[in-house]
Amino acid sequence: MPAISIDTFFACSLMVLLVLSAMAATSKVLYPYMNNTIDSGLAERYREISKYLLLNHGTPSNWGPNSQLIPIKFGLADADSDNSYALDVDKVSRLNSENLYALSYTQIFTALKMSDVSFKIEIKPIFDVSINLTTTFQSANETLYQFEISTEDNGIPIQTELKCYVIAENFLETNNVCASDGEAHINMTIPNDVGGPALLVTLAKATCDLRIVSFGVYAFAHDSADPKPKNTFLRLSPLNHTLTASFCYSGINLSRVYALTINYYSILEQASIGNQSVTYNIPNFLDSSLTLLVATGWNSTVFFTEWTAYPQIPLKIGANFGTSVLSDIFAYNYIVTIKSALYECTVWLGGPKE
After folding, report:
1. Of 180, 229, 328, 350, which one is least surrounded by beta carbons within 10 A?
2. Is the peptide bond before 60 cis (omega within 30 degrees of 0)?
3. Other C-beta atoms within 10 Å of 189: how many?
4. How far is the C-alpha of 307 from the C-alpha of 282, rounded, in Å?
5. Over residues 192-207, mean pLDDT
6. Domain boundaries in the chain?
7. Contacts of 169 by beta carbon, 8 Å cutoff, 6+ apart
8. Are 332 and 295 in contact (CB under 8 A)?
């Protein structure tokens, strides 16, 4: 067996073992610090609290998709699922500060009803997708872009199947490729009469378990100045399978809005139009994949692309544990399910010194 195949086999096997062990054990104390001794009773209490956050629906149980509801009791579990550690896509999205309907730390802290406990929650894909533009070839009518894409988990290459989309002004091109050794190279061509900047969206699924998914997004100049930072023109807020695109400036005109998954894509139709926002219905795709939402439009004479994910991850919300006012801080690691796909969730918990 070639060396690359052996390395890939062991890397994939390692990922499967890590996922299975995390799902079987459900939690693990990652680190205590600040004190030299570990309070086992405190560690067990925090472990139960971390499980409570992920196994309970909260009150009311439908606080996630209803943007007008603030939970009286906090919990992230999907009320429509019978599986343990299945999280609600909208409850998760409302933890992201980019979402128009996001909860504040104070609102979550109040709903948790534990005044002596501080927390932080992070939810992210299990592996990373990195994208680099390596070469550009411009001809009279079109420009060819070559990209290098890597998929890895803490430096370990992960064998994946990739679905790549390039989006520019009224332009969409797709490409499928396999990163057999955690690395792939793709060529994408854009006509020169298509306005930019452009966006490369890459969705990836691990071949060892197709429920393990991740993504990467790379903005690049095409017949234009460099792209502006994310959220310059729009604030994109997915909730209850509806995307709200809120304008950061007056005079913005949206062109096309796309919903992209590993197996499907759709151009969305407007559901409603307001003075400073537009809403779109998000299809409920059947594959085990998050959905990348990409909006294109114009701000006066400037073309732009904006994007977000649904569920709106990666995200991190909670207390700053880099201070010395708390006792030992414990982190609990879980593998959770959101709409049939697997993600990594870490819950940090700590309390005041006695």
Report:
1. 229
2. yes
3. 14
4. 14
5. 94
6. 1-310+324-354
7. 194, 195, 196, 255, 296, 303
8. no
Q: How many CA atoms lie within 13 A of 311 on its CB side?
A: 32
Cα-based distances in Å from 291 to 230, 274, 288, 340: 17, 24, 10, 12
Res 327: pLDDT = 63
Contacts with 117 (C-beta within 8 Å, 6 or more apart), sequence order: 46, 49, 349, 350, 351
User: Averaged over 151-164, what is the pLDDT?
Assistant: 94
Look-up: residue for tokens 């406990």?
117
Strands (E), 221-338: 234-239, 242-247, 252-260, 265-267, 270-273, 277-281, 291-299, 302-310, 315-318, 330-338
**Which two three-digit tokens encode residue 265?**
């894509």
SS3 of 177, please? strand
Q: Which two tokens stand for residue 225?
A: 């100045």
Q: State residue 294 phi and psi, 5-degree precision.
A: -125, 125
- pTM here is 0.89
Tell me the residue ranges of DSSP E strands in 31-101.
none
Listing DSSP states for 95-124 in one string gives: TSTTSTTPPPHHHHHHHHT-TT-EEEEEEE
Nearest 5°: phi and psi at 57?
A: -80, -20
Neighbours of 182 (CB within 10 A): 22
Residue 10 CB neighbour total at 10 angstroms: 11
The whole-number average pLDDT for the span 126-151 is 95
Q: What is the DSSP letter of 230?
A: T
Residue 241, CB half-sphere, CA atoms under 13 Å: how many? Answer: 6
Joined tokens for residue 218:
């790379």
How many other CB atoms are found less than 10 A from the CB of residue 159? Answer: 20
DSSP-derived 3-state class of residue 127: coil
Positive or negative: CA dihedral 165, 97, 126, 182: positive
Q: How many CA atoms lie within 13 A of 301 on its CB side?
A: 2
